[in-house]
Amino acid sequence: MVKSLHLSSLGLLLSSALFATPMWGQLQEAPDAPIPAQIMAAKKIFIANGGERSSPQVRENSKYSGGPNRAYNQFYNAVESWRPFELVSAPADADLVCEIQFDAASSRGGMRIPIGEFTLRLLDPSTHTTLWVMTSYMEMAGMSKNREKDYARAFTELVDDFKKLVSRQTTGPQK
Fold it and tell me: How are beta strands 44-54 and 130-137 bridged, if at all?
C-alpha cells in the first residue's frame, strides 16, 4: 500500500508540474540574442569565394548565366557599392571574412527541376570560427528566364539580410 501511494503521489506531482508550465512543444518567442562582437565591430572585411556547387545535370541542362563566380562577383560589387566596410585583399587584414557560396541542385523531392541556394558565412579571420550563417533559397523553375529572375530575387534577399544584420551596428537590435 505504501508503494502504490508513493507512485501515485509521484504521478500527481509530475502531472501537476506539466500543467503548471507551458507545454514543451509550444515555442515562445525569445528576445534577440546578441550578435557576435566581431560582426558588430567589423570595419574591414575580406570577401571569400565559396564557389558554386552543382550537379552535372544542372551544368549540362540548366546553366545559370554568369559562370561559377557569379555570386562572388555580385556580392563583392554589392558590398563595394554600398561601402559600409573597407574591402581588404587578404583575410589576415580583415576584421571579418564573408564567404559567399551558391549551390545548385538538379532535383528536389523527385522532381528534376533546378533549384538553388545562396549561403553567406561570416567568419572570424583569426579563429576561423563561423559567427553567423545566412541562407536564401531560390524557387523551383524550369524555364531559364524564370531561373534568372529567381536567382536575382534570392541573391537580393541575401544581400538585404546581410545589410540588416550589419546595420544593427548603429541602430541597435531590431524587433
Answer: unpaired
Q: Pairing state of beta strands 86-87 and 96-105?
A: unpaired
Do residues 154 and 137 lie in contact, with contact meaning Cβ atoms separated by under 8 Å? yes
Rounded CA separation 175/141 (Å): 33
Residues paired with residue 116 on neighbouring β-strands, in sequence order: 104
- CA dihedral for 14, 19, 20, 25, sign (positive or negative): positive
**pLDDT value at 175 more than 80:** no
Q: Which amino acid is at 170?
A: T
Phi, psi values for residue 88, rounded to 5°? -115, 160
What is the per-residue pLDDT across 106-119, written as a single tens digit (0 to 9) for each? 555 565 555 788 99
Locate cell 501511494: which residue? 5
Q: Give the gyration radius of the chain's Cα atoms.
A: 23
